[in-house]
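Annex B, item 7. Sequence and structure tokens for protein A, then protein B.
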Amino acid sequence: MHLYAIGDIHGHLGLLDGAHDLIAADIARHGPAQVIHVGDLVDRGPNSRGVIDRLIEGIAGGADWVVLKGNHDRMFSRFMANPHDPEPGLRAELSWLHPRLGGADTLRSYDVENAGDRPVAKVHADAVVAVPQAHLDFLTARPTMHRAGDCAFVHAGLRPGLALTDQTETDLVWIREPFLSFTGSFGPLIVHGHTALDQATHYGNRLNLDSSAAYGGPLSAVVIEGRDAALLTPSGRRKLVVSPWR
């Protein structure tokens, strides 16, 4: 049994299409399998709207795709529901429209301009008109965990010491520590994104797929067999050796 997974997309439709092209080429050689997207569909990149459209269309067309919720996806949904409702995982002095987070980039893809430079109430009113309800319904309905094979797929990680069924949504989409420094077993291999690296990295107990697409890096697509993983490249599979460092 094999599975495919794609890291944090962050509004880069061209990178998403390229990742799916690599998966399609691998499927042609090895057979079909489920594709799991680990979240952060939106923010920072130029075409969050196009990314959501592509994923909705693919699933509606029968593609065996799972799309998880990331913290940026949840911030978008929460802003649209109530722009003054604090995001539990976000520092109090920040908001989704802060330049560091990329909410204004997402709204620009819906033709809502200058979202970071105008009163929040006006931006929200414009966004309510511009953002299709189907996109909001899609984001709200995204799961925060998916179990398949020997893996558990989440966006950010898990809180060590808690059973999978006891994890909170905020941890699943936001956590870094103590998850990143934990060296013990989580049970299944945890496949996640959220913490940007230069390249997808296998740590033995977890596999981080966020290769910094939000910051000009590539979007990683991998194939997973058991607890082993390989990066998909134009020249084929490249095995990800378990890293000795954290």
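Protein B:
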Amino acid sequence: MQRLSVEGFIEARAMLHSHSTASDGRLSPRDVVGYYRSNGFKVVSVTDHGRITRIETLSDCICIPGVEVSSGRSKLGEPYHIVAIMVEDEGILQAKDDPQELIDRVSSSGGFAFIAHPHWSNLTYEDLAELKGYIGIEIYNTGCEVEVSKGYSLTYWDNILSKNPCILGLAVDDAHRYVLPPIDALGGWVTLLLDEETCESVVHAFRDGRFYSSMGPEIKLLEVSSDYVNIASSPVEKVSIISSNGKGFGLTISDLRLLARLWRDRERRRSIENMVSSIDIDMQSGGEVIVAESRYGRMHFLISSGGITEFSWSGKTGSKYLRIEVIDCNGRRAWSNPIPI
């Protein structure tokens, strides 16, 4: 069983894609770090265009060097935008004409490369499948969403996961304006689970995939095996298990309420008996517990504090990979990294 739990770790909110006056941002590099630190971030990388921005670590905030590089051309003639973090060698910038060479240089230098905003960049599946060695792609980009409504790249993620189930998903701001409308900051981030608040621990968290991405909801626990999923989170409206080729499912609190009403009505129960064989509802001190036996398996929900806070599923969990997505009542999402099946 694979397990991700915040217990025993330091939860560190991290911004891995941001811009400063060193390229085309509104704030100075130190002000970018100060902006995120004042909003609860413990890790910040200022990733200006075409130059590695280095900032001395400030109190209570780890600054990691980074850069965004436009490199090569995609199938549709657009440049790849590749973000490199944990990089010190300016020599990697010499590979701006070849995205694979760029990624290779970043990896060999001990850094991490990920593909920025595939939707905004108009990339194709072939563009992502042909490159090797990058750790992940941006699955949500605040700037791209508020500017041109192309911030979500989840379809790209699921497509490439069907080929490589180890590609990680990252949420970022890619902020430039920060405080000017439309606000392009504080919309998406990565929560790292650190052993200690050091740069070395940040490196280990990335190498182990010990993080999740979010726009707001918190994932407290995730346990996955070939026939079992268990998740605990802040209160959310919807829980989804997503896998390859249409496998998996998603359920909202409204769905659960409707299923329970239909089950209690003997006449209307027939309409769902092809999906559900039993539903039990139990009011406990911790909240409302709903247990359903279905053709998909056994599902257990705890509804408390206005949302689903615990969910487990025993049954066939998918193929190749699965990932968890939760959505709160304000439409904000959080995503686990994929788990190969």
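Comment on protein B: The domain at 7-215 is CATH 3.20.20.140 (TIM Barrel).
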